[in-house]
């Protein structure tokens, strides 16, 4: 199984790190009879690389044994497994089965850093979904290995001091909505900003988690402007230097509307290309997802034609297309829906496009290349019937997409929001547009009696808030 090296030379998962790491004990971890560190490596070069990293971190280099994962299973069936374990998958014919065997003999809180020769992003994600802390491709990059071990040790330190450890469960519980306009000027950013505001508003009632609005139009995004904030260079610098992306870096880059709503927005110089590397965007999304319970992504339409969209769609739970009732929007909705179908996204309502309520720990893709996300269509800027270029029923029939919501053309509400530099539901709460946005959000979240049933995007959060 070979993957394209240009796509993934080294996959990274950034976990929450401590601002100031304390000295690491070289033997057994404090308050635990298990060794702190160990490894089983199949070749001398890998063993030497791990030994050098362990020596830098003050870990016990004598805890490294010879052999691959099969030897690790036999060894730790008889002796206590270390809390941080480096294991070699290179000799494994069935990594999934061998990792399950390893899990059977190791405590569930063991942090495993796997190394191997398979250079494929889907293989990497399957390992992360299975609970592996990190996966590195041979030959091991010393800096990558050192960083991975530091992060694993930081997680243990946080756990030991009672702080929240952000791991696989944190990643899985983050729910993501991708908003994309089928054309420019249909009001996608207004809708995305309003949804983020409404979700954070409900988060405040639930007292659970934070919301991040991520504007992926790195040159012309309006998220910061809409909330009267100044976009700095934090997001641009993060994408230009993906090795620097960690929770502390992003905490500084976030624009804070209030405690429960943060923005990630940029106004990159037009001479700079930003966010074109899949690895950088993947690293950004991983770390943001680890720190927030919900993400709202405002995605420009050109993403659909680029190399980044496939990886991005594997991270989302729902796709929201925004259109206006025009013939051009009908055409572009048809084309975009076909593109999304190619990428594994189905229209809302199909079985393949729904997660069960208890599937928070499931991976984002299903068998046969079908992703778990589903696609919803909202019509925005809908005028009175006499002024509609295309009636809603005709739009739905022509595009072969159910129109899940209609948002009225309300220039007064939009103007009020622009003048107050706040989202429409906050600036003009009694307007017809604000009321329609709240109804549409409630339907998407599954809180109304006539809402779509199933484990959709915000259902669990909203149910917690209503208890």
Quick overview:
The protein is of the alpha/beta class and 467 residues long. 39% of the residues lie in helices and 15% in strands. Strands 6, 7, 8, 9, 10, 11, 12, 13 and 14 form a nine-stranded mixed sheet that branches. A five-stranded parallel sheet has the order 2-1-3-4-5, with helices on both faces.
For the record, what is the CATH homologous superfamily label of the largest domain?
P-loop containing nucleotide triphosphate hydrolases
Whole-number radius of gyration?
A: 24 Å
Q: What share of residues is helical?
A: 25-40%
Let me know the average pLDDT. 79
Number-wise, the strands total: 14
Structural class: alpha/beta
Note the quaternary state here.
single chain
How many discrete structural domains? 2
Q: What is the CATH topology descriptor of the largest domain?
A: Rossmann fold
Number of helices: 18
Given as residue ranges, the uncertain stretches (5+ residues, pLDDT < 50) are 1-32, 161-172, 350-368, 447-467
List the defining traits of the structure above.
single chain, 467 residues, alpha/beta, Rossmann fold, 2 domains, 9-stranded mixed beta sheet, 5-stranded parallel beta sheet, 18 helices, 39% helix, disordered N terminus, disordered C terminus
């Amino acid at each position: 199984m070979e993957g394209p090296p240009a796509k993934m030379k080294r996959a990274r998962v950034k976990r929450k790190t401590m601002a100031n790491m304390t000295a690491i004990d070289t033997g057994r971890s404090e308050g635990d009879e298990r060794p702190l560190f160990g490894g089983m490596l199949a070749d001398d070069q890998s063993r030497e690389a791990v030994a050098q990293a362990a020596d830098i971190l003050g870990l016990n280099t004598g805890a490294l044994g010879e052999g691959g994962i099969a030897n690790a299973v036999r060894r730790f069936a008889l002796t206590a497994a270390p809390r941080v374990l480096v294991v070699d998958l290179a000799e494994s014919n069935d990594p999934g089965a061998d990792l399950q065997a390893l899990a059977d003999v190791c405590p569930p809180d063991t942090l495993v850093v796997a190394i191997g020769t398979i250079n494929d992003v889907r293989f990497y994600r399957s390992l992360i979904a299975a609970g592996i802390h990190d996966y590195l491709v041979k030959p091991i990059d010393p800096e990558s290995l050192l960083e991975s071990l530091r992060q694993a040790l930081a997680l243990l330190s946080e756990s030991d001091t009672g702080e929240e450890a952000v791991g696989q469960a944190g990643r899985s519980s983050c729910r993501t909505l991708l908003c994309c306009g089928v054309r420019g000027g249909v009001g996608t950013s207004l809708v995305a900003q309003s949804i983020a505001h409404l979700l954070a508003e409900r988060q405040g009632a639930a007292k659970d988690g934070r919301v991040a609005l991520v504007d992926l139009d790195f040159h012309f995004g309006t998220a910061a402007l809409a909330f009267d904030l100044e976009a700095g260079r934090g997001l641009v610098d993060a994408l230009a230097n993906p090795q620097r992306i960690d929770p502390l870096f992003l905490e500084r880059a976030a624009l804070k509307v209030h405690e429960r709503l943060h923005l990630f927005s940029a106004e990159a110089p037009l001479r700079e290309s930003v966010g074109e590397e899949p690895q950088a965007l993947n690293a950004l999304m991983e770390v943001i997802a680890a720190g927030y319970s919900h993400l709202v992504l405002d995605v420009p339409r050109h993403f659909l034609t680029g190399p980044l969209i496939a990886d991005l769609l594997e991270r989302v739970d729902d796709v929201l297309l925004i259109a206006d009732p025009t013939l051009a929007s009908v055409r572009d909705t048809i084309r975009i829906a076909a593109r999304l179908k190619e990428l594994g996204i189905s229209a809302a309502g199909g079985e393949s496009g729904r997660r069960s309520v208890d599937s928070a720990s499931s991976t984002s893709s299903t068998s046969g290349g079908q992703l778990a996300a589903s696609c919803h269509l909202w019509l925005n800027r809908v005028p009175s019937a006499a002024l509609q270029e295309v009636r809603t029923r005709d739009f739905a029939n022509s595009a072969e997409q159910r129109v899940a919501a209609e948002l009225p053309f309300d220039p007064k509400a939009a103007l009020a929001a622009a003048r107050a530099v706040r989202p429409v539901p906050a600036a003009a709460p009694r307007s017809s547009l604000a009321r329609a946005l709240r109804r549409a959000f409630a339907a998407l979240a599954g809180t109304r009696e006539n809402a779509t049933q199933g484990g959709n995007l915000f259902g669990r959060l909203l149910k917690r808030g209503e208890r």
